[in-house]
Write a structure and sequence with these properties.
Shape: elongated
Radius of gyration: 18 Å
Distance between the termini: 26 Å
Number of strands: 0
Number of helices: 12
Strand content: under 5%
Mean pLDDT: 94
Structural class: mainly alpha
């Protein structure tokens, strides 16, 4: 198969497997999504969804969040890991949202990436899932599978995102990146991978290891 043929087959198969895909992180608006995505760095979505109800019961908007001490935020989010850094980022970005954006999450990559703790992947998730802007956030599952499927070099997530955007139709990006994440978790994990149990991997042939 050519890369384009693989991409078409992948889209069709994922639409059959996951016709509807929920957003994995529980949230009620752009702000709570932004905080949840920030917390998800090096942490599972399941753990984040256990922590955010506690945090958001105390503060679910930037005006309430800035009234919490950084130490209080840190104590709540400790199960998510990297709590000192994440707590400072949550407090800091909340202040900036109030000072520069009237307490609202901006709907532009540039303004989002200026916020503490917000990199391109976090901005991409917020832009796609909160605002419906076409984006292709690349997490570890997508990075691994794009290489495993022979669709990207696996060198870095920047190249993987560029390759994904070149291969897949823009109107599919927002749903597709979630479908690939769900597929990676269910059928094509980094460890314990069995090609015969992975419908896409078996059909198109795969590389099993990421390059060193």
């Amino acid at each position: 198969m050519t890369k384009k043929e693989k991409a078409k087959f992948i889209c069709e198969t994922l639409d059959e497997l996951y016709p509807a895909v929920p957003i994995p992180l529980d949230h009620k608006d752009a702000y709570t999504l932004l905080v949840a995505v920030l917390l998800s760095a090096q942490c599972t979505d399941v753990r984040v969804n256990q922590v955010t109800p506690i945090l958001f019961s105390r503060a679910d908007d930037p005006f309430k969040m800035v009234n919490l001490e950084v130490e209080e935020i840190q104590s709540i989010i400790r199960p998510c890991g990297l709590s000192p850094t994440k707590a400072k980022a949550i407090s800091g970005l909340s202040k900036i949202l109030i000072e520069k954006h009237e307490g609202k999450v901006p709907n532009s990559f540039e303004q989002l990436e200026e916020l503490p703790g917000v990199g391109h992947k976090t901005a991409s998730v917020v832009m796609s899932q909160a605002f419906g802007f076409p984006a292709f956030p690349v997490d570890t599952h997508i990075h691994r599978l794009m290489y495993r499927w022979g669709l990207s070099s696996g060198k870095n997530v920047v190249q993987t995102e560029k390759d994904a955007k070149a291969l897949f139709p823009i109107e599919k990006w927002n749903k597709l990146h979630l479908q690939i994440i769900f597929y990676g978790r269910e059928f094509s994990p980094a460890r314990g991978f069995k090609i015969e149990k992975s419908p896409i991997d078996e059909a198109i042939g795969v590389k099993n290891r990421m390059p060193s």
